[in-house]
Amino acid sequence: MQRALTSILRLTRLWRPLQARGCSSVGATGVPEIQVHALAGRDQGITEIIMNRPHARNALGKVLVSELLEAVAQLREDRQVRVLLFRSGVKGVFCAGADLKEREQMNEVEVGVFVQRLRGLMDEIAAFPVPTIAAVDGFALGGGLELALACDLRVAAASSAVMGLIETTRGLLPGAGGTQRLPRCLGVALAKELIFTGRRLSGEQAQALRLVNHAVAQNEEGNAAYHRARELAQEILPQAPTAVRLSKVAIDRGMEVDIASGMAIEGICYAQNIPTWDRLEGMAAFKEKRPPRFVGK
């Protein structure tokens, strides 16, 4: 219980501005494998991380993982970010999973270190202080699905998305959170079935199992899930930022403990929201019958 309360206090601290927004991240090879875009206009507050490693179908290699870790670490300190959206710049694929070609060049010690780093990336995404959305327009296999599972919300293209924890078909098991987040999402028995069989699901099947929040018909451009994810982010933007962040903390921490402890966590989060300007603004707007103007304070 004490550990959970300490985590709440840590997660709700104020953030520093991100030094470089809307720019590409450059890995050790000198070739950027992600781009970070802060959207403007009616989408201001939405930031996108775009994976762009076409020659490897966005497989999670050392450079891509390092760039993602760096981007997430910087963005978590940026108070202007209110929704973080993960998508692919490669048509037909979200993330093909771990880079097994790169992996086969590692010795056992190096594999262990890399998988621990990959697991840390998923933990950082899961602990990101504002809502995260995965837009899955194509293949999300193994580590690619683990990345999507680390996000708060998932949107998939009904026909072109292919999702699965397929590690057992490669002589492996999920090692970046799949054995923990999938059962928390779907329940233990169904998660075991999907992991034991290495089954692949379409976006439509994934929605039927509640693995994704929404499944949409694919368009000619191959980015229908991205557009639906962006619409979902636009629904979040008008809401009070501090209340949204504290709601995420209450849900995530509360799911890790018994309900009595969860109620205590909710109470702590609620108490932190009481003195905020946004709460007073929400009450005033309700009284005056006008839309609230939240500022995140």
Structural features, described:
It is a single chain. The protein has 297 residues and is an alpha/beta fold. The strands form 2 sheets. It has a 7-stranded mixed beta sheet, sandwiched between helices. It is globular. It starts with a helix and ends in a 9-residue tail after the last helix.
What labels would you give this structure?
seven-stranded mixed β-sheet, globular, single chain, 14% strand, 297 residues, alpha/beta, 12 helices
Compute the separation of the termini in Å: 28 Å
What percentage of amino acids are in beta strands?
5-15%
What structural category do the secondary elements indicate?
Answer: alpha/beta
Strand order of the largest sheet: 1-2-3-4-6-8-11
The rounded Rg comes to 19 Å
Give the number of DSSP strands.
11
How many separate helices?
Answer: 12
The level of helicity is 40-55%
Unreliable residue runs: 1-25
SSE ordering: HEEEHEEHHEEHEEHHEHEHHHH
Shape: globular
Main beta sheet: 7 strands, mixed
Task: Give a short overview.
The chain is 45% helix and 14% strand. With 297 residues, the chain is α/β, with parallel strands linked by helices.
How are the secondary structure elements laid out?
Blueprint: H1 2-11, E1 24-25, E2 34-38, E3 46-51, H2 62-75, E4 83-88, E5 93-95, H3 100-103, H4 108-126, E6 132-136, E7 139-141, H5 143-150, E8 153-157, E9 162-164, H6 178-186, H7 188-197, E10 201-202, H8 203-208, E11 214-216, H9 224-236, H10 241-254, H11 259-273, H12 277-288
Parallel strand pairs: 3-4, 4-6, 5-7, 6-8, 7-9, 8-11
Antiparallel strand pairs: 1-2, 2-3, 9-10
Helix pairs in contact: 2-4, 4-5, 5-6, 6-7, 10-11
